[in-house]
Each structure stands twice: as C-alpha cells, then as structure tokens.
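Field log, afternoon session.

UNIT: design team B
ACTIVITY: writing a sequence onto a fixed backbone
BACKBONE:
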C-alpha cells in the first residue's frame, strides 16, 4: 500500500524566488553563492546497470539505486547560498549556548563518565546480591547505545563541554529537528536534494563533485580506512566547481526533500554482469514520504554512496556519528526566516483566523549576522562562525476580501481584518513590544453593526444561513480597545492575546497603485521631548516599513505603512534590507 501511495505522489518542489542581480547579493557568513541553472538530477537506468556491472557489491543496494531514476530531463534550480563546509561542532556551539537546545551526545563526556560509574556500581551491587542468592547474573554493558539513550533522557541539567579536538569536525548526533532548529536560529535553512545536486554538479553530469572518476584521498569514504569523520577542509582537491568542501563523503547531510519517487519513475528491470555473471534484478523501492533524503555519503560508506545522485531514506529522529548537515540560504532578504516563522509560530496560532493564509515569499525584511573567527585554525578561507542573527520582517496575508477603504472600514467592525504578521527578535520601543511574532489586524472606529444592519449590507449573501461568528468576537475586542478611534492591533502569535493596539496615522492604510514590492528604510523623525519642564524637539531614527497586501482590486492593493522605533543600537547595525 505504501509503495502505491508513493508512486502516485507528485514531487513538490519549493518555490524558490528569482535570484537577485550579482551586485545585490550579500553573502551570509561562511557561505558562497551557487548560481542557479538547469541541472542534471539523479541517474539513468543505464548508469546504474553499468555501476552494478563494474562493482558487484553495489547490487545489494539496487533498491536504493533504483530510487535515483525517474527524471527524464534537467531541472531548473534557483540560485542560493551554501555553507562551504559541513556545519562543525564549533559552529554549532553558539546555538546551543544561546538557546539551551540539547547538545550532541559527544559533548557529554563528563556527565557520561559519572553515569557510567554509577551504572557499573549498580551492576556490581546487583551481581553480588544475585550471587549471594546462589544464582547466576549476566552483567549488562553501558555501551554506546546505552550511553546515547541515557543522554537523550538526562541531558537537561547535565554537564557538557564541546571537546576541543572536535571543533572542526562536522557536528553529528543531530536529528532532523535539531538541524531545523539551528537553521531557524541562524536565519538559514536546510537545502533540498536538488540544491545539493546543483552545488555538487553545476552544469555538468559529474558522478562526483570533482568529476566522473573516484580517487582515494579526495573524500572521506571507507576506502580511506578511517573510522571517524575528518576535520572540514581536509580534502582540498575534492571541492566542487563552487569551491564547496566535502559534498562527497565525511558525513551524510540532511535535506528537506521527502523520500518519494521522482515524477517519471517507473518500475525498472536491470540486466547486470558479464557472461556467466549476468543476472536480472527487479527492485521495488520502498518509498516513505515521512523520511527525509540524506545526501553525500559518509566515512562509513564506499565510493558508491559518495556519488552525487545518491538518495538515502533517513528517519527524522535518527542520530548517529555519520549524519550531520549543511545550511543554505535564499538570496532574497528575510525569506528563510519568514517561511520558518509562518510554519512554526503562525500557522497554528490561536490568533490566526481559520481562512487566513500568508505569503512568506512576499516578505519585506531586513536582517544581519554577527560572526566570530574560528579559534581552531581551519584550512578553509571562507570558514566563519555565526554567533547571532538579527531580523525584522513583515509578511502580508494572501489576499484581502475588500477592494477599497470604505468596505474595509465597514467589514472590520464585524471582525478585525487581518493584514499580515510582523516578526522580529528586536525590542520595539514604539509601539512597545518585546521580541516576538505578532499578527496584525485592523478595526475601524465605531460600534459593531447590529445583525439586521449587517444583513442589509451583505448583498448577495445567502439569507437562509447564519453568518459564522469570528474566532475573536468583535464585542470581546471592543472591551480591549478604544472604539472611538481606528485601531491597528498586534496579536501575540504565541499566546493568541492582544499585545497592543495603536491608532494608525492618515497614511498607514490606503489602496493605490504601486511601483515596487515594498521596502524598509531608516528615516529621520522629529519628536518632542520634555526636558526640565520644557518641550525640546529632537531627531530620531525610526524604521519605515512599507508593504503591499493584495486585494480584490488587483491593480490597487492595500498599502500598509508602519513607523517603528527600535533601540538606538539597532539603528546602527549594518542591516541587509529588502529593496
């Protein structure tokens, strides 16, 4: 049944935005730009037959190899940034320190030593008790599996320290959720398997990132005969055309791609071997959309697994010493954090009405990274450690059901009209809001219309059905705001509660023609301040946010303009701004 479902699954590719011009690109720390283009994906039936004929051991993996087929033509992959190396323990450390997230198993050596000693003492006590009773006792072992289990259950409050010798080694014992959490914290994302293949192949059909022929010493595979991952940058001759390291071997890398059939996949029959060794193979891949594709192979696997086309179905909860990850970033400013916040914090928020959706790809944003040099002397020139990520972004709703300000005002009295969400990790001084995500809605001044008045205005509505009450009833809102004025309301996505309501200025909301996609900019604003009993005018830097929300009038969207006051230090940061 699972196979039938997977074969009918239509491969869904993420909508990547068109790349910015080269001069507009602002590269995230430790990354390089990978130009987009038409890319050879996967393998052909003929290539797999030749591989299994050349390497007989590969026939034992024919089911996995068969999963590489099913794309008859090249695929267009948009441009992106990619980390030049697999994320290291040193690069992962600031994330753990900042968030309190679970450290990798390999960082808990001190706590594990104590746990091991306590385990052995308990086992010795049991053995003596059983022996005194005249019975035989089989002593249990506190092996690697037992240690991993103990760490998963007891890491909170346990001692941990990143081993210095692992600083430049890819971080491992991280599951899919761990990798996603790091990426959100750093303002990045995980790649798709197609982006991985674009980075490794470019415009070529190469089997490996460096070419078609495997050579020992160009990647950390089991041909190297080392039983652990190697420091990043150890294989300079094995880089891709984009100068990215370890795309083959060392550790498997998580992608966001589900392990499903490519669009043109069909059942294949392989005839492999020569003369008497000739045999026919009829594999049936076991598709599972709940598993993620890991790519690149590892130090534990042979050169067959290090090929660019390999797709490893991986359980999301898997944590081993041979699975790590490598972040990427979308060129358009703020789009990665917008997608992440919409999925994690907004989609299931109690403040979000049922029929309201958002457009993260239409984000208007600014962001920047803080970084530090490595203390471990890496061999890679572009290597960098992200220590913090700052951002502010506005994401509009998918579409307003109003076409002009008059209709917007009237309908907002029945239920606040949601315009989008604002997300930031900066503290706002005006309106006064802590870092967080806020769903923004508008309500015009005045009382909620009576049912008979509303029925009369709703021309064309089905008179035989009662209108559904909004999730947040207008009369409940009226007790929280000043209904004698217009209100722009900020609902906390985490709690669903109203955080603050402000009165929009005359130009905050208007329908009109637009010439751009919205923008942010710091502007001087004249404000009055009382000093020693006197009114003194001073100039402050405020952030002007201009965004567009699509309406029923396609030629005249709603233009939303916000003026936000950030802390003075934030106005001096070297922001990347959407233009």
């Amino acid at each position: 049944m699972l196979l039938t479902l997977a074969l009918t699954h239509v491969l869904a590719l993420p909508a990547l935005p068109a790349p910015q011009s080269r001069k507009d690109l602002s590269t995230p720390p430790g990354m390089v730009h990978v130009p987009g283009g038409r890319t050879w994906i996967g393998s052909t039936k003929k290539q797999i037959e030749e591989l299994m004929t050349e390497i007989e051991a590969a026939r034992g993996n024919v089911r996995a190899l068969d999963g590489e087929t099913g794309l008859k033509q090249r695929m267009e992959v948009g441009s992106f940034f990619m980390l030049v190396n697999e994320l290291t323990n040193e690069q992962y450390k600031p994330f753990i320190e900042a968030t309190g997230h679970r450290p990798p198993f390999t960082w808990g050596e001190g706590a594990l030593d104590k746990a091991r000693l306590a385990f052995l003492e308990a086992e010795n006590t049991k053995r003596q008790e059983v022996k005194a009773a005249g019975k035989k006792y089989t002593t249990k072992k506190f092996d690697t599996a037992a240690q991993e289990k103990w760490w998963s259950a007891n890491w909170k409050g346990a001692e941990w320290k990143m081993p210095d010798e692992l600083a430049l080694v890819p971080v491992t014992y991280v599951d899919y959720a761990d990798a996603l959490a790091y990426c959100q914290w750093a303002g990045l994302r995980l790649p798709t398997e197609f982006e991985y293949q674009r980075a490794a192949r470019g415009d070529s059909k190469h089997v490996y990132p460096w070419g078609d022929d495997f050579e020992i010493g160009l990647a950390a595979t089991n041909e190297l005969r080392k039983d652990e991952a190697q420091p990043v940058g150890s294989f300079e001759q094995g880089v891709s055309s984009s100068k990215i390291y370890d795309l083959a071997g060392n550790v498997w890398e998580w992608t966001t791609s589900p392990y499903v059939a490519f669009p043109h996949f069909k059942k294949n029959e392989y005839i492999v071997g020569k003369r008497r060794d000739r045999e026919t193979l009829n594999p049936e891949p076991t598709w599972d959309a709940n598993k993620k594709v890991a790519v690149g192979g590892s130090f534990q696997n042979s050169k067959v697994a290090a090929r660019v086309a390999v797709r490893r179905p991986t359980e999301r909860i898997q944590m081993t010493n041979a699975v790590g990850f490598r972040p990427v970033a979308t060129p358009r400013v703020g789009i990665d954090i917008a997608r992440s916040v919409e999925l994690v914090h907004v989609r299931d928020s109690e403040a979000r009405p049922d029929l309201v959706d958002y457009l993260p790809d239409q984000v208007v944003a600014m962001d920047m990274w803080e970084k530090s040099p490595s203390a471990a002397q890496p061999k890679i020139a572009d290597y960098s450690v992200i220590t913090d990520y700052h951002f502010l972004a506005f994401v509009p709703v998918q579409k307003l059901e109003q076409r002009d300000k008059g209709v917007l005002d009237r309908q907002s009295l029945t239920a606040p009209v949601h315009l989008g969400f604002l997300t930031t990790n900066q503290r706002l001084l005006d309106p006064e809001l802590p870092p967080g995500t806020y769903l923004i809605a508008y309500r015009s001044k005045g009382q909620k219309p009576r049912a008979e008045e509303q029925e009369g205005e709703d021309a064309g509505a089905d008179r035989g059905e009662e209108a559904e009450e909004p999730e947040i009833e207008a009369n409940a809102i009226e007790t929280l705001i000043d209904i004698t004025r217009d209100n722009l309301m900020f609902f906390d996505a985490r709690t669903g509660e109203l955080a603050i309501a402000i009165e929009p200025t005359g130009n905050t909301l208007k329908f009109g023609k637009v010439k751009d996609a919205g923008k942010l900019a710091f502007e001087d604003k004249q404000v009055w301040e009382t000093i020693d009993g006197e009114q003194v005018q001073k100039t402050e830097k405020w952030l002007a946010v201009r965004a567009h929300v699509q309406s029923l009038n396609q030629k005249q969207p709603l233009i939303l303009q916000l003026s936000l006051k950030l802390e003075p230090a934030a106005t001096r940061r070297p922001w990347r701004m959407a233009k």
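LOG NOTE: The radius of gyration is 29 Å.
NEXT ACTIVITY: expression trials, pending approval
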